[in-house]
Amino acid sequence: MRKKLARILAWAVTISLLVYLFHSISFTEIRTALTSASSWAIPTFVVLVLGVYLGDSFAIWKTFGWFVARLSFPEVLIVRGATYLLALVNYTVGQGAIIYFVKRSRGVPLLRGTAAVILVMGINILLLLLFASLGLLIAPDVPPALYRIVLGAYGALAVYLVLLLLRPRWLTSRPIFDVLFAAGLSGHVRALAVRVPHLAALMAFTYASLRAFGIEVPVAQAIACLPIVYFISVLPIAVMGLGTTQAALIYFFHGYVPGATPAGARASILAASLVSQAVALVVQGLIGAYCMRNQLARQLSEPAPTA
Predict the structure, then answer these.
(1) Rounded to an integer, what distance in angstroms lies between the CA atom of residue 227 and that of residue 193?
(2) How many other CB atoms are there within 10 angstroms of residue 304's CB atom?
(3) Domain membership flag for residue 234
């Protein structure tokens, strides 16, 4: 019942935000923004989406190999590609399918696989924080709220590091935290390093989409603000981040459209975000459909064998 209610609320938030955005921006301005896109936009988006896929697969391959079970890189490419059909709705669901795969193919207990996914998700948040911090150091002007968000995140990180170092028994005795404590600081650093290509490709994709529609965001500003946009987009309060992503991009970057009116600037950002997200959905769907034809991927939909 709670899951059904959460889905209903997510759709309500998504529809409400999109209705608000389209109500506040005229279709004429959106159409003008769409026609002004650079000719290189779509091919570049496709290439960068493939880069995001490869970067994500590489990070999963290394992280699961270190802390869960050794998988070949082709296996990870196929399974991660297949799970895109689920991850189009929810990234965590896609990761859950990987847990199911390593259980079937390597006999890894579900709790250990889940613990590895928790590590991956924590590493994602930590890397977003580090990129945002770098952006704050080099960006000339960022919203004051961004400093408060980053400081609050560092407070939570400090608590996490203390628990990781002290290893309290009431946490180490729980299997769900086994991988986190087994990884230690050095394991976290390694998992962080292999996740960098994924986030770099994702930021390049978003940055290219903004530039293609005439939004001239400085690189430093993008490094500071995009991690917060990504964090907002993965919150389970909207479907596929629709609405929340567009609202966050408009909030951070509406002042970087030279010569445009405030409404025109919002239209350009909305068009850039929706077009790039549509391209990503199509490419990921094609990758997922292709990979699902592989025998490894078909295991995800087969019933689990009895013991």
Answers:
(1) 16
(2) 9
(3) yes
Q: What is the pLDDT along the chain (307 residues), one digit of tens a residue?
A: 666 777 788 788 888 888 888 888 888 888 888 888 899 999 999 999 999 999 999 999 999 888 888 888 998 898 888 888 766 655 556 667 778 788 877 788 888 888 888 888 888 888 988 888 888 887 777 777 777 888 888 888 888 888 888 788 877 777 777 777 778 888 889 999 999 999 999 999 999 999 999 999 999 889 988 988 998 888 777 877 888 899 999 988 988 888 888 888 999 999 999 999 999 999 998 998 888 877 666 665 554 444 3
147-183 tens-digit pLDDT: 788 888 888 888 888 888 878 887 777 777 777 777 8
Tokens 């995140």 correspond to what residue?
153
The backbone region for 77, taken as left when phi is positive above 0, alpha when psi lies in -120 to 50, beta otherwise, is alpha
| Cα–Cα distance measured from residue 161 to residue 167, given in angstroms and rounded to the nearest whole number | 10
In this structure, what token pair is assigned to residue 274? Answer: 């929706």
**CA 40: distance to chain centroid?**
24
Instruction: Note whether residue 158 is domain-resident.
Output: yes
CA proximity to 226, closest of 127, 101, 111: 127
How far apart, in whole angstroms, are the C-alpha atoms of residue 187 and residue 299?
Answer: 30
Cα separation, 249 vs 128, whole angstroms: 16
Does residue 189 form part of some domain? yes
Is residue 25 domain-resident?
no
Q: Which two tokens stand for residue 189?
A: 């650093």
State which H helix or E strand residue 280 sits in.
helix 262-291
Neighbours of 127 (CB within 10 A): 21
Domain count, the chain: 1
Distance from C-alpha of 183 to C-alpha of 175, rounded to nearest angstrom: 13
Could you say which DSSP state residue 243 is in?
A: T
**How many Cα atoms within 13 Å fall on the side-chain side of residue 208?**
22
Q: Which residue range forms the structural domain that includes residue 283? A: 41-296
Longest dimension (CA), the chain: 67
